[in-house]
Amino acid sequence: MGQPVPHYFFDINDHDLSHRDDEGSEWPNREAARAHAMRVLADIARDEARRQDRLHLFVTIRDERRTVLAIASLAVACTWLD
Predict the structure, then answer these.
(1) CA dist., res. 27 & res. 52, Å (int)
(2) Distance of alpha carbon 64 from alpha carbon 49, whole angstroms
(3) Could you report the per-residue pLDDT of 35-49, keeping only the tens digit for each?
(4) Residue 30: closest CA among 82, 74, 76, 67
(5) What are the pLDDT digits (tens) for 9-36?
(6) InterPro entries, alphabetically (predicted)?
């Protein structure tokens, strides 16, 4: 019988949005969970950056005990210089 596949939760936060992941999903390892969190950040930034000049996003990665393992973040900004 193989190793159990780790279960991770990905909470999303920015200044206007907060989503707590109560379902979670299985990923083979921490690196795969990290890559998923980074893709989530990129997907949200692609949609939200069109509507805002500044955006600061966080994805908190939790394990099956709901312990925070990592926080991935992304800041996007456009400042006119004139």
Answers:
(1) 32
(2) 32
(3) 999 999 999 988 887
(4) 67
(5) 999 998 777 999 999 999 999 999 999 9
(6) DUF6894 (IPR054189)
Output the six-digit token pair for 51: 């509507």
Question: What pTM, to 2 d.p., does this model score?
Answer: 0.86
CA distance 21 to 4: 21
Tell me if 73 sits within 8 A of 58, measured CB to CB: yes
68 close to 19: Cβ distance less than 8 angstroms: no
DSSP state of 6: P
User: What pLDDT is recorded for position 75?
Assistant: 93
Cα dist. 20→12, 32, 45, 52 in Å?
7, 20, 18, 23
Q: Which residues, including other chains, have CB under 8 Å from residue 18's CB and lie 6 or more apart?
A: 11, 12
- pLDDT tier, 1 (very low <50, low <70, confident <90, very high otherwise): low
